[in-house]
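Budget justification aside, the reviewers requested a transparent look at the raw inputs and outputs of the sequence design task funded under Objective 1. We therefore reproduce one unedited record. The lines immediately below are the structure tokens for a 92-residue chain.
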């Protein structure tokens, strides 16, 4: 019997592999913080995009579980701040 965190780690690994193999097979660059972005966005086949999304979702849940309850609350607050504009001069 696997634990939830191991199951999530396996999901991240599998779905990342699907995404990575597609990029490699199609001679597309792997995501990088050190290279300039391509001139146009990469349009992925639906199944590859689904794998990419599943990897992201599992990675977020894994991060939250490994962070613990306080880490989860703080992480959620940080994600909200990324999407909710704060009027100039105000703070959270």
């Amino acid at each position: 019997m696997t634990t939830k965190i191991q199951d999530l780690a396996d999901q991240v690994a599998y779905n990342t592999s699907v995404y990575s193999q597609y990029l490699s097979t199609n001679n597309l660059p792997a995501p990088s913080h050190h290279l300039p972005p391509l001139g146009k966005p990469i349009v992925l086949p639906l199944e590859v995009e689904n794998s990419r999304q599943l990897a992201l979702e599992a990675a977020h849940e894994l991060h939250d579980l490994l962070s613990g309850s306080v880490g989860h609350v703080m992480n959620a607050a940080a994600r909200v701040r990324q999407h909710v504009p704060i009027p100039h001069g105000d703070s959270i």
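Residues 46-83 form the longest helix (38 residues). The mean pLDDT is 86. Computational costs for records of this kind are itemized in the attached budget.
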